[in-house]
């Protein structure tokens, strides 16, 4: 579904990412790790057509990202749910309205979708916060709202950028459980994180590949994590 063939990316200076080849299959589970500034967020952006490679080829759902056009990019955004590092919300809307925003934007805000919204808020444990405004949420609640917003359009893949960045251990485990559950439902999941203890803990729940960006290249990390 997401395929990289000898991909490189540069923001204008030297290459940040070099010669990356990778296949993200449906139902797969990956962690993406590497030092701060290594290019994890940049790599994720290449996976959902927010960036196009400066060399090589990124193919998203069978199409070269360079040939997607506006409709093609919109289709990719529907099929790839992204939990951003800073999980920004519209503060004048309620939590429920923020989570439902991707439905509203894609014109699929039907009654059935509204029911899905209620279920989804229950799944992430935010039913009681549905009417709250985003600034009133705790860090963990924000992360769970961001996850709900990413999955409301039933994407094929979920990309999460440091989803447990600002939460305590218990909450990070809860978020991981939600991501593992999504994977069991058949979604491909990729989580960018610095947190090696999170990866170690997840290994008992899911069979995941761990990728590391090191010296501009993507490597499969060994079992020595
Ligand atoms: N829009 C941009 N223009 C120029 N340079 C950028 C841009 N975005 C990111 N960079 C640079 O690219 C490098 C990689 O950034 P990126 O955010 O992909 O790293 P990261 O591995 O996700 O880092 P972190 O773990 O700190 O979030 C950094 O040096 C960053 O400053």
From TrEMBL:
Superkingdom: Bacteria
Pfam families in the cross-refs: ABC_tran
PROSITE patterns: ABC_TRANSPORTER_1, ABC_TRANSPORTER_2
MF-aspect GO terms: ATP binding; ATP hydrolysis activity; transmembrane transporter activity
Alphabetical list of InterPro entries matching this protein: AAA+_ATPase, ABC_transporter-like_ATP-bd, ABC_transporter-like_CS, ABC_transpr_LolD-like, P-loop_NTPase
GO BP term, pick one: cell division
Domain ABC transporter: 2-225
Cellular component GO terms, alphabetical: plasma membrane
Keyword terms: ATP-binding, Cell cycle, Cell division, Nucleotide-binding
Protein name: Cell division ATP-binding protein FtsE
Protein species of origin: Roseivivax jejudonensis
């Amino acid at each position: 579904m997401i395929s990289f063939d000898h991909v490189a990316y540069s923001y204008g200076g030297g290459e940040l990412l070099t010669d990356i080849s990778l296949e993200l299959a449906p139902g797969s589970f990956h962690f993406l790790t590497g030092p701060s500034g290594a290019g994890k967020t940049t790599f994720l952006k290449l996976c959902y057509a927010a960036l196009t490679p400066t060399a090589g080829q990124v193919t998203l759902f069978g199409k070269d990202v360079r040939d997607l056009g506006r409709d093609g990019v919109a289709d990719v955004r529907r099929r790839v749910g992204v939990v951003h590092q800073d999980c920004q919300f519209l503060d004048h809307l309620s939590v429920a309205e923020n989570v439902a925003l991707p439905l509203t934007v894609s014109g699929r805000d039907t009654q059935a979708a509204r029911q899905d919204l209620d279920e989804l808020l229950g799944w992430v444990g935010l039913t009681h916060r549905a009417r709250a405004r985003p600034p009133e949420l705790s860090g963990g609640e924000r992360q769970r709202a961001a996850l709900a917003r990413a999955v409301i359009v039933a994407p094929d893949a979920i990309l999460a950028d440091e989803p447990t960045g600002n939460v305590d251990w218990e909450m990070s485990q809860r978020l991981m459980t939600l991501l593992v559950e999504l994977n069991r439902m058949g979604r491909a999941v990729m989580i960018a994180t610095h947190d090696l203890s999170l990866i170690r803990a997840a290994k008992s729940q899911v069979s995941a590949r761990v990728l590391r960006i090191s010296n501009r290249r993507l490597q499969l990390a060994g079992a020595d994590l």
